[in-house]
Amino acid sequence: QVQLVESGGGLVQPGGSLRLSCAASGGSFGRYAIGWYRQSPGKAREEVAVITPGSSTRYADSVKGRFTISRDNSKSTVYLQMNSLKPEDTALYSCNADPMNFPGLLPSWGQGTQVTVSS
Predict the structure, then answer these.
(1) % of the chain beyond a pLDDT of 70
(2) CA 84 to CA 4: how far, in whole Å?
(3) Cα–Cα distance between 19 and 28 in angstroms, integer?
(4) What does the alpha-carbon distance between residue 59 and residue 30 come to, in Å, rounded to a whole number?
(5) Which of 24, 50, 86, 108 has its CA 20 to 30 A from that of 39?
(6) Alpha-carbon distance values, 107 to 29, 54, 63, 85 (Å)
(7) Strands laid side by side in the 77-82 sheet
(8) pLDDT band at residue 101, thresholds of 50, 70 and 90?
(9) pLDDT tens for residues 56-86?
(10) Residue 42: which residues within 8 A CB-CB, separation 6 or more?
(11) How many CA atoms lie within 13 A of 103 on its CB side?
(12) Mind spelling out the 3-state secondary structure of the chain?
């Protein structure tokens, strides 16, 4: 089972940028789809962006044109570049590894990294 550790969160002013990282260990990273999700108090968890093993991507409508997801399989890391941040982007951001039904692999979640957008 792959283990995930997020980093890169913090406090940023509206209009600013952050880059989140999701670092994996435990092998077979390239077989997983990796997704970024966010949750703020009182709200349901929301899918933000996903990148497949073949590097196809999808985004939530709320972040299209502002966020970019990418992966570096040589470093077992997925990145989320977040630009033009808004206060409504404030949330705990977590990454998920989805084995997409590959035999013998299990899904996994990281602990999350807090992003706060405020002046």
Answers:
(1) 100
(2) 26
(3) 24
(4) 20
(5) 24
(6) 11, 18, 24, 29
(7) 3-7, 18-25, 77-82, 67-72
(8) confident
(9) 999 999 999 999 999 999 999 999 999 999 9
(10) none
(11) 0
(12) CCEEEEECCEEECCCCCEEEEEEEECCCHHHCEEEEEEECCCCCCEEEEEECCCCCEEECCCCCCCEEEEEEHHHCEEEEEECCCCHHHCEEEEEEEECCCCCCCCCEECCCEEEEECC
49 vs 63: CA distance, rounded Å = 8
- Torsion (CA) 79, 69, 24, 28 in degrees, nearest 10: -140
CA-wise closest residue to 66 among 104, 117, 105: 117
> Token pair of 86, please?
């808004």
- As given in the structure block, the two tokens for residue 3 are 């283990």
Tens digit of pLDDT for each residue in 24-40?
998 789 999 999 999 99
Mean pLDDT calculated for residue range 42-61: 97
